[in-house]
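@channel anyone free to eyeball this complex?
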Amino acid sequence: MVRFENVGLRYGTGPEVLKDLTFSIEPHSFQFLTGPSGAGKTSLLRLLFLSLRPTRGLITLFQHDATRLRRSEVAALRRRIGIVFQDFRLLDHLTTYENVALPLRVAGRDEASYRAEVVELLQWVGLGERLHALPPVLSGGEKQRAAIARALISRPELLLADEPTGNVDPALARRLLRLLAELKKSGTSVLIATHDVALMDQYDAPRLVLDEGRLYFGQ
Amino acid sequence: MNDPRPATEAKPAREYGEPMVAHVNPILPDDTVTGRSLLAVVAIMSFLAAATVGAVEIVHGAAGEWRTDVVREATIQVRPMPGRDLDADVRKATEIAKAAAGVADARAFSKEETERLLAPWLGTGADLGALPVPRLVQVKVAASAAPDFGPLRRALADSVPNATLDDHRGFASKLAAISDAVTLTGLAILALVLAATVLSVSFATRGAVAANRAVVEVLHFVGARDSFVARTFARHFLAIGLRGGLIGAAVAAAFFGFARLSANVLGSLPASGNAAFYLGHFALDARGFLWIALVAAAMALVTALSSRITVHRTLRAID
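replying in thread with the prediction:
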């Protein structure tokens, strides 16, 4: 599904923040991406999300060479990837329902065709009662779940989550993790960036460890 | 058996438990501080641009009127000469003028009219017979013909040597120079105002798009095509631009409408004298109002276009 071969990344003329990354993300997989702050987790997620281009090496994403994509192709590939941002990036003037439905709305789908789907997903993440609430009145955990729901609504083949449990209490963190782990069964590959060791210990999954720009594999 | 349910319950509006949901908000926030400021900027600049366009149109029209009114008239002066019959010469000059090509009418001022013309200088009751006072023939050029006084001047020189034709050319050329200068000045001011309008509207739009950068980014990250994002913004800002442009143009149009009305009212007052004669008709015609509408439409287009350009620039900056 995703293959990195000797990928390196530097910002401008600065030092390489990612060095010789070689790994792959297989279908139906669930793995953690971890490492100390500033190790390059977010940069790696941005590479996976086509928001950055590598300065060297080869990235193959859904059988496409990521370094040679046209802008129009990037949008189409991005619809196959769901992303949960660390800061949620919900739009404050849209209701929870509208925020979650946004990926389908921009894909040009008719609202009647996805209304039930969106409501069902929101109920699944426990926001069935908060459909009409605007993000500023949602709690941190509710925002987190809305952001996850938005990433999942278009049934992505790959889900990337940047510290998805960073703003919630341990009980909710466990629930969210279970929720994300369940996605594996439906065919979505999941990569969760986190530095919460206690959280990773609860779930037996491969770990990609980034340290000073280099990647190590752990369990 | 009849259905026991009352008719009003035959078709429930929704199943029990099905939440009432729908998109109620547009993708771009409707009422924001930057949106309102942009609306104000577009409205004010549209008003200024429309007012300038209207003023230039009026001045240009008035300048044209002065020129044509002066050029459409000429005067033949017949001087008394020893040994010649002045009345016969005046009659002859009038006939020649009437017969000339392109002349609509020629009329000699009678002795009494001449006395009346000179009354402010000589007083009433002066005996003009004792003075060598020249007589005048007023020549009106047909509206359709281009005034060409050459043949008339030659015919007069042949038959009435003591007659001279004044076609007001010197006065007309001075007026032409003045009206050209006024129109050119107006156009220069208009160019400056339009440039300032386009610049300020496009900068205000850029600011408003920048305030919505979060929306651009989120749309981009959830897989919206650039064209979708640009279209969404262009449509939103076209609406703001149209509203602002219409407000500005409507105020300008109302201003000129009021000016026209008050000019009509003032013109009907006896004290107004010959203001309309000297100044022309200081009112905006249908063409002027059309220009104002065009200004409003142009403002809306500028707003939409600069939002589009800014959005594309923002999108390129994100990745």
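from a first look: Residues 111-124 of chain A form the longest helix (14 residues).
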